[in-house]
């Protein structure tokens, strides 16, 4: 009976870590896509130092490595790998909870930094011409969110980009521009997706806690049976 439970726990953990590994590969792919297709420096010059695509790539590498560690530890019934898997998951969960708390504590300050950075990014690309790569990023955001400038079309002065026009084509004597700025639209988008983001973080923490429980349970079973790598 004990051996049956051990095998069930072992293969369950292997399957779960395989799914997590595939998720890590997806994060890696998304980071690579963002690195090629989207440049944050045009919108937020100072925040671009954080380099979100690189962060996604690093996150994807960490997820794949940790999941492979858990998969190999469960498959080989290796106590050393299982204990390392448990400790790494515990540290990752602490980092995630700390980051979430800091975001909640400094929400207003972060909003002010983003507003200032968007204004600086707009001033940086204004007047450089409509065919530079920085302007194309603003065009993408304004078309996607149906907004214009940071606070409105007045931010661009003259001329206003065609991506601000409500109607297409924009060749008319008095074109109509989107009334809302991109800062308002982005805030609304984040508020709409706040619940989804919160649920995703909670699900991620639950998965990590279950992974730690599985790893420690399997570690204890292996220890009692005298199997696995002797620490």
Overall, the morphology is elongated
Q: Which percent band covers the strand fraction? A: under 5%
Tally of helical segments? 7
The end-to-end span amounts to: 26 Å
Q: Which structural class fits the helix and strand makeup? A: mainly alpha
Number of strands: 0
What average pLDDT do the residues reach? Answer: 77
* Helical percentage: over 70%
Uncertain stretches of 5 or more adjacent residues? none
Radius of gyration: 24 Å
Q: Main β-sheet: number of strands, strand sense, barrel status? A: none
Strand and helix order: HHHHHHH
Keywords:
elongated, 7 helices, mainly alpha, 71% helix, 231 residues
Summarize the structure.
The chain is an all-alpha fold. The protein is built from seven helices and no strands.
Question: How would you describe what is shown here?
Answer:
- This protein is mostly helical and 231 residues long.
- Helix content is 71%, strand content 0%.
Helices and strands in order:
Blueprint: H1 2-37, H2 52-76, H3 79-105, H4 107-125, H5 133-145, H6 182-192, H7 194-225
Helix pairs in contact: 1-2, 1-7, 2-3, 3-7
